[in-house]
Amino acid sequence: MIGMTFERILPPGLSRPRAGALVGVIVAALAAGPGAAEPSGPCSPLQFEGASYVICTFDARRDDIRLFWKGGDDQAYGDFSRLDNALASHGKALRFAMNAGMFEDNLTPVGLYIEDGRQRHRADLREGASNFHLKPNGVFYVGDGAAGVVETARFLADGPKARFATQSGPMLVLDGRIHPKISPSGASAKIRNGVGVRDGAIVSFAISEEPVTFYAFARLFRDGLNCPNALFLDGTISSLYAPNLNRRDDPPRAIGPIVAVTAPAT
């Protein structure tokens, strides 16, 4: 399975959020010099606790956040350029895109996948030794003017109305606490991407520009972006389409589900 790796990130202690961490992020971004921030678009580079990231922030109340998997030919898009071309043929522009969770070799989602209100792949509740199965894992979803990241079991039980949803794992932050099995001493470092939500609508996507540990990545969402809940999407193959940063790179290899923000073409 692509992206279905297991990293030894076992226990214990949790640390409390640092006061003023968000201010620290802003200062770090400004201190990075010319090009560190891009006010004309949704994505900006920043430094947090010594590591480099790109953060792309959207508001589900006004931005068109969607998930894409297959095109009209019933084949997975597989990369950003194919999705971009498909959208352009329908008068749409791609503002942002990122790989949206783990997938099998045939680009099928590993877990729950909902697109345009239709469940196209069932939830995966199995135990296992992969990152995906490091419980609790979670679901990122988008509804009408709302978005969230919740534990998988809670999502299935409470059933928030979702137009789009993707399951991945592990959860990075759960109700303000770092996942209990993510250890500050964990040494495995990879390029990583994930998503966090605050205030029921503000969605922050993050990708590291260098290898980082799970704990560092979780702290970015909790202490840097003030997201009480955040979800790991994948590592190593993590890819970003951010035209406002002149970043349109295709992923290093074919990917499954894609999360994207679209707008009418100008």
Quick tags:
266 residues, alpha+beta, seven-stranded antiparallel sheet, five-stranded antiparallel sheet, 16 strands, globular, disordered N terminus
Secondary-structure blueprint:
Elements: H1 21-31, E1 43-48, E2 51-59, E3 64-68, H2 80-88, E4 92-99, E5 113-115, E6 118-121, E7 138-142, E8 147-151, H3 152-158, E9 164-168, E10 171-174, E11 177-178, E12 192-198, E13 202-208, H4 214-224, E14 229-235, E15 240-241, E16 258-264
Antiparallel strand pairs: 1-2, 2-13, 3-16, 4-15, 4-16, 5-6, 5-9, 7-8, 7-9, 10-11, 10-14, 12-13, 12-14
What does this structure look like?
This protein has 4 helices and 16 strands. It is α+β, with helices and mostly antiparallel strands and 266 residues long. It has one domain (57-205, 226-264). A hairpin with a 2-residue loop joins strand 1 (43-48) and strand 2 (51-59). The termini are far apart.
The main pleated sheet reads as:
7 strands, antiparallel
Low-confidence stretches: 1-6, 8-39
Distance between the termini: 39 Å
Cα-atom Rg, whole angstroms? 17 Å
How many domains? The number is 1
Number of strands: 16
User: What's the pLDDT, averaged over the residues?
Assistant: 86
The oligomerization state is: single chain
Concise description?
The protein has helices at 21-31, 80-88, 152-158, 214-224; strands at 43-48, 51-59, 64-68, 92-99, 113-115, 118-121, 138-142, 147-151, 164-168, 171-174, 177-178, 192-198, 202-208, 229-235, 240-241, 258-264.
